[in-house]
Amino acid sequence: xxxxxxxxxxxxxxxxxxxxxxxxxxxxxxxxxxxxxxxxxxxxxxxxxxxxxxxxxxxxxxxxxxxxxxxxxxxxxxxxxxxxxxxxxxxxxxxxxxxxxxxxxxxxxxxxxxxxxxxxxxxxxxxxxxxxxxxxxxxxxxxxxxxxxxxxxxxxxxxxxxxxxxxxxxxxxxxxxxxxxxxxxxxxxxxxxxxxxxxxxxxxxxxxxxxxxxxxxxxxxxxxxxxxxxxxxxxxxxxxxxxxxxxxxxxxxxxxxxxxxxxxxxxxxxxxxxxxxxxxxxxxxxxxxxxxxxxxxxxxxxxxxxxxxxxxxxxxxxxxxxxxxxxxxxxxxxxxxxxxxxxxxxxxxxxxxxxxxxxxxxxxxxxxxxxxxxxxxxxxxxxxxxxxxxxxxxxxxxxxxxxxxxxxxxxxxxxxxxxxxxxxxxxxxxxxxxxxxxxxxxxxxxxxxxxxxxxxxxxxxxxxxxxxxxxxxxxxxxxxxxxxxxx
Length: 487
Prior knowledge:
The protein is α/β, with parallel strands linked by helices. The protein is built from 17 helices and 21 strands.
């Protein structure tokens, strides 16, 4: 592989890092560059007060800051621009100014990919990629799996976990890296010299169209991962969409890679989150039999597990080893995470569910009656599809936040098992939990599955999920207090 911006090249260069972020998305690359002798300027539209915690984590390296604005004059003497995946290159005036000045640009992920000597398992998709990656990592770091494929370390990174850039120089061909890669990251990899040993596509449904414009452009960004699979490698496909599968097969033939069908079917029934034939006709594949012994609920997690088993299997991990490892997998925070039980009602935090498809997945994950909490930032037309889920399972819905009123109107048009779906509108997450408490009956499930981004009231979905969990714990403490008083 050819590294465009080697450590020797970076030494002494003026590098502008566009975007630090409240939660430090730019910390890893800023630290990496500074430690290699680059003269680093971090520029961010947020002010110092907002970024104080992120800046504190860079106190041990020499970094300059331009906060509250992106000043185009800072590009006049720049040798390199590093952009965050969140930057929309189509609309960013700062990026356009860099291009006009012939300043080369890259991303943290691109810098890592060019330096990574380890075997790479790259995974992308619209739904399930985070859990699939975490499951694949859990399998690959199991001692038996490492012995089967001769692996030293198994690392997890990309769009999940901490930055791996600083560790890139220590990786060897004996190591394995599982990377979750978003459409934003993959939209920036053209011209980057890298190869993956196993590329996984969980599924593809319309998403982030405000950024990509069309589904075709969004899908094309995802397929950039598959175009990087090395000759003799594998492409693992979780979707049954015939048109997408045809494109995958064409890429595999061009790259000299094999295609592995990872669509999960139990007893011949399709169980992946995307419906076959949405963008084409279904294609035939093998039937998956015995379900996986998992701690996390839902048929979608069976599909995620099956995808992870196939990804690990492409490297040589035995299915029996993979099943053993998955039985110990505890799940990811904010993804149908069990919070607790209050008065015979189980509460689950699914704050990461920011799309209509993710809500549909949550509704299909439980057998008994459900009380659903939906709300957050209104995302426009994409939100209209929320009514497509299996709402007959739902006892009641509670809406909240910026989208609360519109969601309430949409959901009142759906039907539960007993008739029109009861919908109550709350202002905050805490109020929504209180409403759910009144609506739920022993044996029910209450799930926060918002279907919307969090930034109407929270900095991210994690903060929203933590607020929900705190409200549930407060509810549990209140119930205990009442019980203790009565005794």
